[in-house]
Design a protein that fits this description.
- The protein is 37% helix and 26% strand.
- It is built from five helices and six strands, in the order ααββαββββαα.
Length: 174
């Protein structure tokens, strides 16, 4: 049996790969080109999303991300900056906290929720595994807060209003 290929990367390599990943995501936040985002992962990626389950392969991830980010509340998020990150060369992983701010509802409010993302690097700028760890209740409450504020200000759009009147009811704290 041939020896197992060593897939470890140095901390510097992981940090550089994450920096490039972060820059690509900043560009996607502007262009809304979610296909470009999906292309950051290997063809056989395992993507664990705590509210949606595990997706297998880039094309399944591509379908999910396009559906998710073209619908409220994803469609109203303006960026995905990493607040901090750490690299672990022994596992080829980068762990980061991602902010998910929503667009201004009309009064300068910043409404956001964060998640932890664990990425496993495969080399060549691609990630073979990703896991988003977050509390769906907090994301729903942030989206509902945004809807209520936009409704008060008269800036709510139809997708947000529809979400608020249906799914959003689960997150209404009064």
């Amino acid at each position: 049996m041939p020896p197992k290929k060593d897939t470890r990367f140095s901390a510097e390599e992981l940090d550089a790969a994450f920096k490039a990943h972060h820059e690509a995501i900043a560009e996607v936040a502007k262009t809304r080109d979610w296909d470009r985002w999906a292309d950051l992962y290997t063809e056989d990626v395992d993507y664990i999303e705590h509210a949606m389950g595990t997706m297998k392969g880039r094309e399944q991830v591509r379908t999910w991300i396009n559906k998710t980010m073209h619908a409220f509340p994803g469609s109203h998020m303006t960026g995905y900056p990493s607040l901090w990150h750490v690299v672990d060369p022994t596992t080829a992983r980068v762990i980061c906290e991602v902010d998910n701010p929503m667009r201004d509802p009309g009064d300068g409010s910043i409404i956001t929720a964060t998640n932890i993302t664990i990425l496993t690097y495969a080399g060549d700028g691609l990630w073979s595994r990703a896991e988003d760890v977050y509390n769906p209740l907090l994301f729903g409450q942030a989206a509902m807060k945004w809807c209520k504020k936009a409704a008060e200000l008269g800036t709510i759009d139809e997708p947000a209003q529809q979400w608020m009147d249906t799914v959003g009811k689960m997150f209404d704290r009064g």
